[in-house]
């Protein structure tokens, strides 16, 4: 496997140029503009490589139609991405006008102050896109990096160093994404606003095009992401509200964390309320993830879905 270092080296050199051009500087209130209304009022996380081709791809397309999904965050193995093994999937999404983002991440990436693993994935996207027609190209990276899973999160001094490294890494990767016409989206938990508000402000303002908030508490879905939406509004960034669909018992999920037991109609009703209350054009909504969504649709709980909520 050839080692991709050119992009990382080039991006380190780009930082001085970007700083001189004003990248990373805080904008005034007058300069901040809300994102255009999102074309992806609903999106989907998918980790299943079987859906990249054949009958399973057909099943995925059916789910996208039935659930009103127009944006997909899909895990794609590197060898498939570079060998053309994902081309059938990307072509199908291109024909549908469905935006695709590579879904990848690891908690250990949070230690990389240079954003090496994030930049590596951005480089993979660029290499894959070079062989694809424009309509089939991957838009960017949905980075699922969870520093709170690391031991140092529980140590006050260790956490401070960890979070500073993580912030530096996403800032560097974001500049690389911007320079190469790609987007960088970051998965975040709903507790950053209370556990590490400085980090949240930093990564929203200077480290991404948008955040995807794991809003997994059905008792207070508005309060769980109110701060995140206001930060996104302040900086003109996207914010994606993720709903959990997995069955309780997995990953310590309880009934209150997931819509598995209550079905899709209450979820869609909740999204309509959130869209109305937040009234922010950069807000959109996402299902986590494909397999349980397929199950809910097959058992009838998601039949005849209402129209997508306006973001």
From TrEMBL:
Keywords: Signal
Signal sequence range: 1-21
Entry keyword Signal: yes
Protein name: Glycoside-hydrolase family GH114 TIM-barrel domain-containing protein
Organism this protein belongs to: Candidatus Gallacutalibacter pullicola
Native organism taxonomy: Bacteria, Bacillati, Bacillota, Clostridia, Eubacteriales
């Amino acid at each position: 496997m050839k080692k991709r270092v050119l992009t990382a080296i080039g991006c380190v050199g780009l930082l001085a140029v970007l700083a001189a051009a004003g990248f990373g500087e805080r904008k005034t209130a007058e300069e901040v503009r809300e994102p255009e209304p999102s074309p992806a009022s609903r999106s989907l996380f998918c980790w299943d490589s079987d859906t990249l081709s054949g009958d399973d791809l057909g099943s995925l397309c059916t789910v996208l139609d039935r659930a009103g999904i127009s944006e997909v965050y899909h895990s794609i193995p590197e060898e498939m991405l570079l060998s053309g093994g994902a081309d059938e999937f990307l072509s199908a999404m291109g024909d549908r006008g469905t935006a695709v983002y590579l879904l990848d991440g690891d908690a250990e990436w949070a230690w990389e102050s240079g954003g090496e693993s994030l930049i590596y994935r951005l480089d993979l996207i660029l290499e894959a896109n070079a062989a694809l027609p424009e309509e089939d190209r991957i838009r960017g990276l949905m980075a699922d990096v969870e520093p709170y899973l690391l031991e140092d999160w529980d140590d006050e001094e260790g956490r401070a160093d960890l979070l500073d490294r993580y912030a530096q890494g996403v800032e560097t990767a974001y500049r690389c994404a911007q320079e190469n016409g790609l987007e960088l989206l970051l998965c975040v938990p709903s507790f950053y606003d209370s556990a590490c508000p400085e980090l949240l402000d930093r990564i929203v303002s200077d480290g991404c095009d948008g955040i995807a908030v794991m809003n997994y508490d059905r008792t207070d879905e508005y309060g769980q992401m109110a701060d995140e939406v206001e930060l996104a509004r302040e900086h003109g960034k996207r914010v994606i509200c993720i709903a959990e669909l997995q069955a309780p018992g997995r990953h310590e999920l309880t009934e209150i964390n997931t819509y598995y037991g209550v079905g899709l109609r209450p979820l869609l009703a909740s999204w309509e309320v959130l869209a109305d209350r937040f009234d922010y054009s950069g807000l959109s909504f996402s299902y986590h993830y494909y397999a349980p969504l397929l199950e809910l649709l097959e058992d009838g709980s998601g039949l005849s879905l209402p129209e997508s909520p306006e973001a």
